[in-house]
TrEMBL record:
Residues 44-148 form the HTH LytTR-type domain. PROSITE patterns: HTH_LYTTR (PS50930). It comes from Roseburia porci. Gene3D superfamilies: LytTr DNA-binding domain (2.40.50.1020). This is LytTR family transcriptional regulator. One of its GO terms (molecular function) is phosphorelay response regulator activity.
Length: 153
């Protein structure tokens, strides 16, 4: 495999192109790692009242459904998005994961996990008193994702 970097000062936005003979697991893995690395610096438009804000994805702790709306939680604030959780799942990078029917969490911001074998496990975040519960049915994939993330560093 060759890796080549070309500098073009005429570009208005950085672009990564992968030329490959065929799609295989290595190519998918490279694409995912690039998407995850770039994704955490991407911004998302959210609202609070009549004001629109632009948050970097790494500042978002979790998304949760509240009635008919989706709340966007940072360490200190709560915003809204018009996107539904299933839409967010499709566009968010690999550092986000659904952990219950009503919650998608940023696993890169986890401080601690209080495991509960018979019920939902509680997750605390770095720099915030907010907590999220990981339901039993999502717990095994959640722990696998954390292990995968830890091993890839």
């Amino acid at each position: 495999m060759k890796i080549k970097i070309e500098i073009d000062e005429n570009l208005t936005e950085d672009e990564i192109v992968i030329h490959c003979k065929s799609l295989n697991e290595d190519i998918f893995s490279i694409q995912k790692k690039i998407t995850d690395a770039v994704g955490s610096r991407q911004q998302m438009a959210v609202t609070k009242g009549e004001t629109e804000f632009y948050l970097t994805l790494e500042d978002i702790l979790f998304f949760e459904t509240v009635g008919n709306a989706v709340a966007v939680h940072t360490a200190e604030q709560i915003y809204q998005t018009k996107l539904r959780l299933y839409e967010l799942e499709e566009i968010l990078p690999g550092s986000f994961m659904r952990v219950s029917k009503s919650t998608i969490m940023n696993i890169g911001r986890i401080q601690s996990i209080h495991k509960n074998i018979t019920g939902a496990s509680e997750v605390e975040f770095v720099g915030s008193p907010k907590k999220v519960f990981v339901s039993r049915s999502y717990f095994k994939p959640f722990m696998s994702k954390l292990e995968e993330k830890r091993l890839s560093k």
